[in-house]
Structures are given as C-alpha cells and as structure tokens.
C-alpha cells in the first residue's frame, strides 16, 4: 500500500512543520490515525509503517477490527472517537484504551462501572461543543467545568483532557478560533486543579491550526486512508 505509507509520511511532515512554526516539539503531538470504514488490512499496513494509535467511530465495526488485529494488541492503542449511546458503552469499556467522545456524566459513569478490573483505567476526554461544532454533541463550555470535575472523580477512568470537532472553516485564522477556545477552557480546568495533559483537536483539513493552538492529539482519517465510502 504505497499510497498509505506516503500519506502517513506527508501527514507526519505537516505536523512537524506546524510544530516548528509554533515553536513546539513535534514529539509532543500524537498522530491518531482514524481508520473508520477502512478494513483491518489497512490498519495492519499503517502499523507496519510504524503507526501505533488508531481511532474508530462505530462500536460493531471497531470490535470486529480489534479482534482481527488481536495479534498486535499489546503494542497498538485503540481510541474510540465516535458518538456513544449509553446502551453501547460496555464493549467500548472492555476493548479500548481511550474514549475521546465522552459528552456527559452518565456515559462516563457507565464506562467506569464497566471497565474490567484487570485493565488499567480507561483514558477519557470530555467532548466539548465549542461554538458551531459540526456534530452538535458535547458538553457546553459552562457545563464542562462541573462535568469534568465529576468525571475526574470516577475510579476506573483517567480524565486526560478535552476534545472538540469544530465546524469546517476556510482560513487558518478562522480555523484557529475554536481551537483556541478549547485550549482556553483546558487551561482554566488545569488552573482549577485538574491534571489534564491532552487536547484532542485537529483533523485532515485543519490540523495545522490545531497544532498552532496546542493540540496534543490530532485525529486524521482522510489524509491517511483516503476518502471514506459509506455505501456499504
Ligand atoms: C472521522 C473523524 C475524524 C477524521 O476526519 P478526517 O477529516 O477524515 O481527517 C476525526 N475526528 C472524529 C471525531 C471523526 O469522527
């Protein structure tokens, strides 16, 4: 899969260049390869090229993929990034290393209750609905402070930070504005005493803006795997 390997390198270079412009160490930014709708073989090819963190959106699809790649499980990280209904939390709690899309306390409570005792705490991010968020899900900025404090107190979760999906925007300045809002909320929560280290923001079309505003995880699908086909 020469395209995939080339694409991965190109995305790494975009991250490195943006980090340089921002005066940041490129190693402080993790590339999460979003593999939703793509087959396990593509994940395996990216893994062979050195990629270690993968993002998935759909529970059933992801569990099938995780099982198909069980031989790599010890050295690969699975991140759930899609909308999560409360009746679908158990397989996520049992199979993933991270959940970026925790958007309310009830989901966090279920994940904590359902996280198996033999696994380390599940890393989670609170999804925040910053102005004009495309998906419309996520805690509002005013409610985020209280929800984050409550999630941080749950025993089987490790609250790592915040996640957002800003509306697509044209110029880099327009792209930076919502990412800056998320970073400001992140800093406020840290000043309030929460030990957060993760800002999950930036996708194929706006990862530079996100890195300039402090992203520590960028979630990139299309620029690595190509255009998604949802027809089957
Ligand atoms: C699909 C998806 C991505 C990747 O988007 P691309 O534009 O393909 O890079 C990132 N984050 C979330 C939450 C997604 O659902």
TrEMBL record:
GO terms for molecular function: pyridoxal phosphate binding. InterPro entries: Ala_racemase_N, PLP-binding_barrel, PyrdxlP_homeostasis. Gene3D superfamilies: Alanine racemase. The modification N6-(pyridoxal phosphate)lysine is found at residue 36. Residues 7-228 form the Alanine racemase N-terminal domain. Keywords: Pyridoxal phosphate. The keyword Membrane does not apply. The keyword Cytoplasm does not apply. It holds the Pfam family Ala_racemase_N. Its cofactor is pyridoxal 5'-phosphate. Pyridoxal 5'-phosphate (PLP)-binding protein, which is involved in PLP homeostasis. Belongs to the pyridoxal phosphate-binding protein YggS/PROSC family. This is Pyridoxal phosphate homeostasis protein.
């Amino acid at each position: 899969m020469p395209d995939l390997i080339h694409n991965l390198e190109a995305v790494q270079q975009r991250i490195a260049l943006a980090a340089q412009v921002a005066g940041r160490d490129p190693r402080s930014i993790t590339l999460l390869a979003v593999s939703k709708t793509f087959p396990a073989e593509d994940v395996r090819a990216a893994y062979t090229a050195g990629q270690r963190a993968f993002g998935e959106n759909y529970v059933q699809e992801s569990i099938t993929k995780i099982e198909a790649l069980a031989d790599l499980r010890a050295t690969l990280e699975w991140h759930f990034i899609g909308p999560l209904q409360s009746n679908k939390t158990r397989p996520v709690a049992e199979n993933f290393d991270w959940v970026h899309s925790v958007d309310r306390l009830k989901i966090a409570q279920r994940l904590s209750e359902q996280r198996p005792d033999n696994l380390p705490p599940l890393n989670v991010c609170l999804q925040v609905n910053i102005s004009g968020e495309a998906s419309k899900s996520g805690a509002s900025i005013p409610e985020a402070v209280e929800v984050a404090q409550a999630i941080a107190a749950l025993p089987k979760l490790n609250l790592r930070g915040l996640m957002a999906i800003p509306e697509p925007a044209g110029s880099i300045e327009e792209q930076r504005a919502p990412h800056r809002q998320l970073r400001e909320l992140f800093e406020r929560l840290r000043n309030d005493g929460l030990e957060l280290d993760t800002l999950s923001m930036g996708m194929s079309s706006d990862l530079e803006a996100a890195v300039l505003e402090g992203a520590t995880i960028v979630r990139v699908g299309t620029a690595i795997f190509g255009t998604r086909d949802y027809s089957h």
